[in-house]
């Protein structure tokens, strides 16, 4: 799937989507493919060579395929990263982690096998909680099916592999449309990022916050943009970005090296 196909597909689906940052993003395909055989795409922005022990930040967009703005905003941030002004950190960026959901017609929250990837992460409680929570608390909502077992989906396994190999010091994951900011992990959370204010949403068994935030003790910032089908403006996404950098500089940059 060429970049042009992806960027055109996003333009068709998303109001006010600027396709140029998408075309210019120079994403690389990872080895595994999605269930529907679409590429899983990423891009690295390494830290400047002058920084010998940079902190690493992992950014994920579109884990729920019908939250299109969460993909668009990550492309806006890729534009900012390309300026080289943020190379005091290393960045790994995964703009569309659920390509099958994103390019389904209509787009779906779940992947091509009907699994909510953000309930499929292998947290220690997955086996005891994920399916019973789904049946009892969501009454078997098809949009929230956690899968037949933990990490049953190639997209989930790919993200887990990124966390294990890249060893991020912070994870940023973008959703829509609740218009808030959530945080999992032992650090002090940011109180606001741009127009999004901290409002803990609770932890769902098998979510990225459950897996990486609570089990691995990594800071996981979950952004919930206010609209799923409308990109944030450049100034809105820029303000989220600059507040994020303030938080990273204050909270993550000074952490002693864990490894
Ligand atoms: Zn979501």
Describe, in plain words, how this protein is organized in 3D.
The chain has a 7-stranded mixed sheet with strand order 1-2-4-3-5-9-6, sandwiched between helices. It has a two-stranded antiparallel sheet with strand order 7-8. It has a single domain, classed as Zn peptidases (Aminopeptidase, 3-Layer(aba) Sandwich). α3 packs across α8 (234-252). The protein has 8 helices and 9 strands. The longest helix has 19 residues, at 234-252. The radius of gyration is 17 Å and the shape is globular. It has helices at residues 3-13, 19-23, 69-81, 99-103, 126-137, 154-166, 208-215, 234-252, and strands spanning 28-33, 39-45, 55-60, 89-94, 170-175, 180-184, 192-193, 196-197, 220-224. It has 259 residues and is α/β, with parallel strands linked by helices. Bound molecules: zinc ion (ZN).
Gyration radius over CA = 17 Å
The ordered H/E elements are HHEEEHEHHHEEEEHEH
Structural class label? alpha/beta
What share of residues are in beta strands?
A: 15-25%
List keywords for this structure.
single chain; binds zinc ion; two-stranded antiparallel ribbon; Aminopeptidase; alpha/beta; about 260 residues; about 15% strand; globular; 7-stranded mixed β-sheet
